[in-house]
Amino acid sequence: MSENVVLQMKNIHKSFPGVRALQAVDFTLRSGEIHALMGENGAGKSTLIKVLTGVYAKDEGQIFLSGQEVTVHSPEAAQKMGISTVYQEITLCPNLSVAENMYIGRNSQIYQNWRKMNKGADAILKALDIPAKATQQLGTCSLAVQQMVAIARAVDTDCKVLILDEPTSSLDEQEVAKLFKLMRDLRSRGVGIVFVTHFLDQVYEICDRITVMRDGALVGEYAIKDLPRVQLVSKMLGKELDDMSDIHGEYESCKKQEGAPHVFEVEGLSSDAGVGPFDFYIDKGEVNGFTGLLGSGRSESVRAIFGADRVTGGVVKKNGNRVKIAKPIDAMKNGIAYLPEDRKRDGIVGDLSVRDNIILASQVLKGFLRPYSKAEAQKLAEEYIQLLNIKTASADTPIKALSGGNQQKVIVARWLLTHPEYLILDEPTRGIDIGTKVDIQKLVLKLASEGMSITFISSELDEMLRTCSRLIVMRDLKLVGELSGSDLNQSKVMNTIAGGEEQNEEN
Prior knowledge:
507 residues; alpha/beta; six-stranded mixed sheet; 35% helix; globular
């Protein structure tokens, strides 16, 4: 074993009832490197990490730390061995100070001495160049700084292996740059970093090597310079990547009838979330989207349309006739469905089964005094599991046991079961693998070709350009432009976001 190998996992196996999650997986991490762990959702990345950190017991295989074989019984044992994990969802306490978050539950003696605790925290923050103060309330810090504090807490325990699980999914470009600066600093100090992400650009910017997994097995380990992006995607999918630049060509557009009113239209809509007033329309079989930087008002706009935020002004029309949408149930009764940005907080009901999550919205419309029978619910769930190729052991599996991409498909199934005229998808592909992203993009265009109207929101501009025929550009909670046809290109979108062109008056 090489002297600078800090972690080696050999021949790791793990099975669950009906599922072989890991099959003879090897993984090697060197000290002072940033190593990307890549693969589709369901590839086994999370399971491998949970075996390493003692959440799951391996069925077979060996784990070596600095050349010594170890058995990791629990996350606490992993922490004592120098294996720390920072997850996508920040698990700190925003109402406590930065110093309290760094020491709570770890060092009772320091935690009881406020002066010593604050001094120690400030020393760590300064050493890692983290722009925060020990006495500052964590909730007042940006998401990026909160992530950095979580990392500081992790590496302050003689950390040898740092696992970062999707740490950048909620950060903007400037925040990502700050986080990468910290990661490079830790790499220079000899920490081995496992970086789990779905952002290919970030992998090639920050990482030294890549390990690719697929279907619970190891595909290979590669130096970053030896694996072009196209090959990486191909290895993740297990097939040659289709040309995604023209997935529009696979489906024939649904043509709007001349003189037909817009399917949905809003005039002067505003909400207590601060968006508006804005005008918007969508036609039958159209895919349009809201685009703009984080905080521009993309999500606030569709939440106002759906009634998820309190509407403070404006008019809503369906097929030319005025309707009132004051709350989500009003929108649902008028044929609008909405997949929210945060699936864990606003989408899935983790302890319920896949079946119960699928029928939830339809049951609300049907009324809880008229419940689906078990047989009806099972039949509907199986139909949509097959339709969307949802990977689950059964319809009875708790949705929280599924990968992120399959959870997302379940929520899409939930809304398709209501047979909506207008489907709003807010970040439907965030945090999921590229294969599932393509599946969802193709599904969107297929539904549109069958006459459904769809608003699609993604923070990945190339995905918006592949999927949408019209983009509404937002900045500072205001609509600043509308692009279609030959204007639908990356340069024009970015210039409109930056320049704040006036709203197109044609609508």
